[in-house]
């Protein structure tokens, strides 16, 4: 950095500190400035990154580390985002329904500053003439998504960074009523709405031009939470799947879902729920985990210890904002507890929903409670039934086979529930990253609490039939073939490396994976009649091995999704098929690493 650049940076930072409405970030910035001026390389680097540009608003809204500067999450950035979103909602509603006053609801989790960001958003919305509702407490993201439609709102904001590290926060936007087409009401934003909102944010004037009302918004009472809890608990089908004999260990991972999840599970009939005591209460520092994501190694250690102590049947885990659900159970083959992959839970839930639909039809041969979790009990598929099952393109292909066998349509979408939830006629959708939408009429997004209800129902039904959920999974493999998946994630310090790796693959595409020749190569950036363009590459080999490589949309990672298929004719063949699939996946991982030059 030249002396001129440093002087400009320091000047910009001093101006920011002088106008920052948050005394804590202003003081932190002043201290950082002093260190940088005294020659600290680390302080100069942090200062440069904080002021290197403006945090970009996209389909994930905003998400970044807390701190001062335009490239961080703070009250200045949030005020500008709220003002821009208010302008967008006012314009969109004015065009779609002239004379109608926009409506919006704002929710927040228990992360640092979430309540402040939410309160200031409500104040800015109210000042802009929007009928504004503020959730009554730090509550799960699915409850905010529920409220957008339940309150007939045009917009919704959830202040959360989901399962990101403690130092992060975020700003997730939903649209509804007059602000979006019917398929997107209650869902997260997609293009072109992100660009339209970003444009409005960019047009916001000086910070002191943003008006915050002193009052005028409504702090909701607990009735909206009670409505969500009642509707979610009612998803359980106690008539056709009556068993509730299930000992559950539940962890909210220091997040906001614990009280809601216990309330819902209890109301659904699952009274034997033990909370992981050390992780039961919301704590923005997430002290017992290095990374508050159930997928991360070690995140479920305390839950598994608790499960062993109380002799539980199943472990359920939500991420901190409770929109994702993880499952662990004791593997009968090894006797050890293990967490199921997102694809395993996704297909189990899909099969269970097929069984629920079949049980609800008064036709001969329908699957009943004893067939819980297995596809349609003997009916001929015949004409396609109403409703669609869906999953993201990087998730397992097994759900499509389960749906087809039961006579339902299936769609693949881009990654993210902003796409899955928009599938017309959706009955159930999932993505491998622990996201499940089991009740799209209630929450048009992933929902870890409603998913927990049906996971518990499925596990209890299996237990009543003398089975485990692993037995149910094996039954699916026997019917549709063993589908085994894995991932390779490559974290980078420089985002430019992601482009370099993707370009390397486009210039020199691999010819085979796991000794099976690539027969189909699709550059997802080109788009198709089924999928919008996205930065990703798909390979399909002769033996139906599938490899998809794409940059993460929320983290500095290159993500590689792998799936191999192995036919099985009998239960006796399953152990050998599993071993063969594991060896194949290991070989594919090696080939991917080689193709990337690692």
Helix content: 25-40%
Overall average pLDDT: 94
Q: Kindly estimate the percentage of residues that lie in beta strands according to DSSP.
A: 15-25%
- What is the CATH topology of the largest domain? Alpha-D-Glucose-1,6-Bisphosphate, Chain A, domain 3
Helix segment tally:
17
Give the overall form: globular
Radius of gyration: 25 Å
> Mind telling me the CATH class of the largest domain?
Alpha Beta
Q: Tell me the distance between the termini.
A: 31 Å
> Which CATH architecture of the largest domain is right?
3-Layer(aba) Sandwich
Main sheet attributes: strand count, strand direction, barrel closure: 7 strands, mixed
Number of strands: 22
How many structurally independent domains?
A: 5
The CATH superfamily of the largest domain appears as Alpha-D-Glucose-1,6-Bisphosphate, subunit A, domain 3
Q: Which regions have little confidence, pLDDT < 50, spanning 5+ residues?
A: 364-382
SS-derived structural category: alpha/beta
Molecular structure report:
With 598 residues, the protein is an alpha/beta fold. The chain folds into five domains: 52 residues, no CATH class; 165 residues, Alpha-D-Glucose-1,6-Bisphosphate, subunit A, domain 3 (Alpha-D-Glucose-1,6-Bisphosphate, Chain A, domain 3, 3-Layer(aba) Sandwich), CATH 3.40.120.10; 112 residues, Alpha-D-Glucose-1,6-Bisphosphate, Chain A, domain 3 (3-Layer(aba) Sandwich); 125 residues, 3-Layer(aba) Sandwich (Alpha-D-Glucose-1,6-Bisphosphate, Chain A, domain 3), CATH 3.40.120; 114 residues, TATA-Binding Protein. It contains 17 helices and 22 strands. The strands form four sheets. Strands 1, 2, 3, 4, 5, 6 and 7 form a seven-stranded mixed beta sheet that branches. Helix 12 links the parallel strand 13 and strand 14. Helix 11 crosses helix 14. The longest helix has 22 residues. It is globular and about 70 Å long. About 3% of the residues have low confidence.
